[in-house]
Structures are given as structure tokens and as C-alpha cells.
Amino acid sequence: MTARVSSWPDSDVPQESRDSARGSAPLRAVYVTNGQFPVHVVQDNGLPDVALTVFANDLRRILSDSSVRGYVRETLSFVNWCACDPVTRARDWRWNAEPPQVRHAVRQYLTVAAECRITVRPDTLGVKASYINATAGTRINVGLLLVALKKLYDVLADHGLYEWANPMVHEAARQTMGEVRRQRREAMRAATGRAPMPAISGVDAPPTDLRLSENYFRLVRTQWQPQSIDDPDFPRAVYAAGQAYGWSLREMCITRTLFESGARVSEVVALTAGDWAVSQFLNRFHACNKGSHGRRVKTLVVSHQTATLCRRYFDDARNGRCAVDPERLTLRQLPALARRSPARLDQIHVYLTARGTPMTAKLFRDHYWTPALRTAGLDADPHLARHWFVTNALRHVERGARDEATLARRKQELIQYMAWRSGEQTLRAYEHVERSDSFQRRLRAIHQTMRRRERLAARPTARPRAGSSADEHGSPVGMSGDLAYLLGEDDDDS
User: Fold this and answer.
1) Contacts 24+ apart (CB under 8 A), 208-213
2) How far is CA 327 from CA 311, 314, 356, in A?
3) Average pLDDT along the chain, 494 residues, taken 10 residues at a time
4) Where are the domains of the chain?
């Protein structure tokens, strides 16, 4: 049985808290490859924390492995911080105490460690709740933390490990929400003679006048804005950085797939031979999507050149996948293997590490992408490849559409390909950024035209118009002459 240890991330807590925690035994998560409990939450002395271990393993029933790690990471950061913060220790605000103490600890963690601003005010139902605003100094995923803690106390209560009500739930808000729903059901029966239909049915219009929430802490979310990458040479710069750093064929195949398919790095490194077999190992892959819990719900398309590189990497017995695969499988062997056991292909990962284990997004990002780009003087996350793909795909769609009907159809095709759950909203966000960037590019041309007119007006041969005053050099007073003096003779618009 092998294990990988995920320790307390120091970047999530203040320096003084980390220093004070060195004398204690902070909890950490240990992930094992098999066994009844694949996730163990243990102290430095090796003793397990039963409640948190139960919580971590219960999450695996409903979440993907990557999501489990995120929930556990944020939870342990909070728990370890409570154990070492001087204020929480002095006032005995423990994470597993009664609800008022837990809420005090969460508020202290959010304001001190996370550097958030918290405002207590009534919501639309008149119930006072704590609204959280992230700041420039916030370095933790506040939304994920709140979801993880709410789930933590639900799981512990179900297992009899927490004897009070969930401290992340506002009891008054829950009661008020129940009363509002009861009144709406009665109003629907009085108006139509029937109970309201489920929202998923689409029969009844969803209520939009109230936004109901039972949460005690509520994150004030800002609208997500995608990043626009206009540089057509961005992929080429990344390829050059990787080549100079010494990337192998594996890293180049992953990177080219990111730029050509618009997929997330976690989706690319999780590809299997079964995903590739849908195109007879050509240029299409089935892939999972964010929130699909491992189900293959989307298709990735790459160029035929990249598909050729992927086949070469898979079969290379010296420097490719075949060299590190314990079974030494090649593409020629896969069709026969699929006929004997079709499910077997889903267990064969396309990208392997030097030890023959599946490549992970974190490993690729931390040990290959980031060092290569940093050495080349580039500061970009692998997710920017996805933004680059969408930005350029959207521009291509808008330029190639002959009419509004064609434009709408092609936008829907893009939404379907990207497998966006909120397709129209996401597309509008990209369109907003694209139009903003497009106008900024036009502003440069406008500024150049204004500057040329100023220079023409500043020439000695230029005569002032009738009714205008001129300085002793013949330039209109207070306009171009002063600008030429202030700006100098730079050629920034050339």
C-alpha cells in the first residue's frame, strides 16, 4: 500500500500562526491507493482523528477525488488554524464545539487569516446574516471553505460525531424559508387548484423576487470574468519555452492538446486509451468535464499533427509511454485488448509519470509548465490556454458568420463543444471581454489620429484659423504647442 501525504498548506495561514503551530501537532491528510479508508487524517505522531477521517472518506461517495482533496485541504487549514491562533485558544473557540463557538472561530479565521471583510445585515427575509467580502489580501478559496464546513457538520451529525445543530446553518433563516415556501404553495393551490410543479419541469416560472438562503455565512460573489488572450504567438512562445527547458514528447503533447482543444489540464492528463479509442486513435477523445464525476460527457478535438505526436509518444519504447509502462503496451495491442475486455481500456492512462503512475494536473503544472515558462520570463497558468482557445474560437465564429442565424448557430455549437453548464452566461462573459479588448485596440488608432493632428497643428507653417489666437511661434495657444512641449518628440505611436 502506497501513500501520498498532503500537509497543511503554509500559504493559507499567517506567518505568526505557522510559527506558533510548530510546537503543536497539526493535522494532515494521507491518501492511500487502497484500503477501507483511502483518506486518513492524522497528527504528526501518527494517531488518527476519527471525526475528520470519517468526513474525508464520506466525501468520496459524492465528490470526485480532486474535489475531495479541495474540501479536505480547506477544512484542515481551518482546523489547524483554530488550534494555534492565540485568540481562538484563549476563548476556547474550537472547531468541534457548540455552534456559537464555531461561528466565532469561523469569523476569526475569515477576518484574520483570510483577510476578508464581514458585514452583518438583514437579508431579503429580514434575517440577520454575515456577508463576506473577499479583499486583495484573501489567499484562500472562501466559497469552497464555507461549502466544506457546512458539509463537515452534516456528515459528523449523521455519524453521531457532532451533537448540535449545524453551526453553518441559520436556524431562523431555515424556519423563515419554510414559511415562505408554504405560503407560495398555498397561493399556487388557490390560483390553479394544484401544487407547484418542480423547477426542473419548466411548467411553473421560477420565483425571482427572493433569493433564499439558510447559510449563516454568505459570500458576496463578484461576477466571474474570463481572461482574454489576443496574442496569436502565445502557443508558440509556450512551445519554445518548453523546448528550451527540456520538455519531452509527453509534455509537448499535453500542451498542444490544451491549446487545440480548449480543455482543462485536469481533463487532458486524465485521458485514457478508452477515451482515445472512440476515434480509432486519431484526433478525437472523449473526456470528463468539471462536475461530471468522471463521466465522459464531452469530446476533445486536436489537429492531426498533434494526434501523430500522441501516437509516437504512446509507442516510444525509449523515451515515451511504452518505456515506463509496466505492461509495455503499444497502440497495436489495444484493439485486441478491447475485444477481450472493453472496460480494460478505461484503466489505461495515456500519460504516465517516470514511475509508471498516472500523470496529475498538479505534477504537470508544478514540475513542467511553471518552471519552463518562468525560465523563459513568462507568467501564465495552464488555464490560460483554455481562455486563449475560447477567445480565438469566438473571434473566428463572429468573423465567419454571414448572418445572425449562422452566428447564433455557431455560438451554440461552441457552447456544446465546451460543455458549459451555463453556456449563454459564460459566452456573454467572453463576448463582453472580447468587445472591451476590441475597443481598446481601436482606441490606440484613435489616439494615433489625434496625435497626428496635434503635430500638424504644431508645425511652424501651420496658420491659425480665423478668430483663434496664436503664440509667437505660430502655434495655436493653449493646445498643440503646449502638448508638443509637454509630450516631447517621442514616437510611441509609430
Assistant:
1) 210/124, 210/125, 210/180, 211/123, 211/124, 212/124, 212/125, 212/177, 212/180, 213/123, 213/129, 213/173
2) 17, 12, 10
3) 40 38 67 84 90 95 87 96 94 95 96 93 84 87 94 96 94 76 80 77 60 85 61 91 96 96 94 95 92 83 95 95 95 92 92 95 94 93 91 83 85 86 72 59 69 76 50 44 46 42
4) 3-117, 234-392, 422-494
Single out the residue of 423, 428, 493 nearest to residue 454, CA to CA: 493
Taking the CA atoms of 116, 120, 125 and 127 in sequence, report the sign of the dihedral they define: positive
Q: Using alpha carbons, select from 320, 310, 311, 279 the residue that is nearest to residue 296.
A: 279
d(CA 271, CA 347): 10
328-359 tens-digit pLDDT: 999 999 999 988 888 899 999 999 999 999 99
Measured distance CA(387)–CA(418) in Å, rounded: 11
Residues sharing a CB contact under 8 Å with residue 318, sequence separation 6 or more, in sequence order:
none
Q: What DSSP string runs through 197-254?
A: PPGGG-SSPPP-S-----BSEEE-PPPP-PPP---TTHHHHHHHHHHHHT--HHHHHH
Expressed in angstroms, the distance from the first to the final Cα of the chain is 65
The answer to whether 376 touches 241, Cβ cutoff 8 Å, is yes
Which residue, 399, 398, 422, is CA-closest to 408?
A: 398
Q: In whole angstroms, what is the distance from residue 389 CA to residue 447 CA?
A: 30
Residue 75 C-alpha from the chain's centroid: 19
3-state secondary structure of 1: coil
Spatial separation of the C-alpha atoms in residues 162 and 50, rounded to whole Å: 12
Q: Is the dihedral of CA 436, 440, 445, 451 positive or negative?
A: positive
249-261 vs 234-245: helix axis angle to the nearest 10? 170
- Chain position carrying cell 499567517: 14
Instruction: State the chain's maximal CA–CA distance in angstroms.
Output: 95
Q: Around Cβ 67, how many Cβ atoms within 10 Å?
A: 18
Q: How far apart are CA 38 and CA 213, in angstroms?
A: 34
CATH 3.90.550.10 fits 234-392, yes or no: no
Cα–Cα distance between 273 and 209 in angstroms, integer? 49
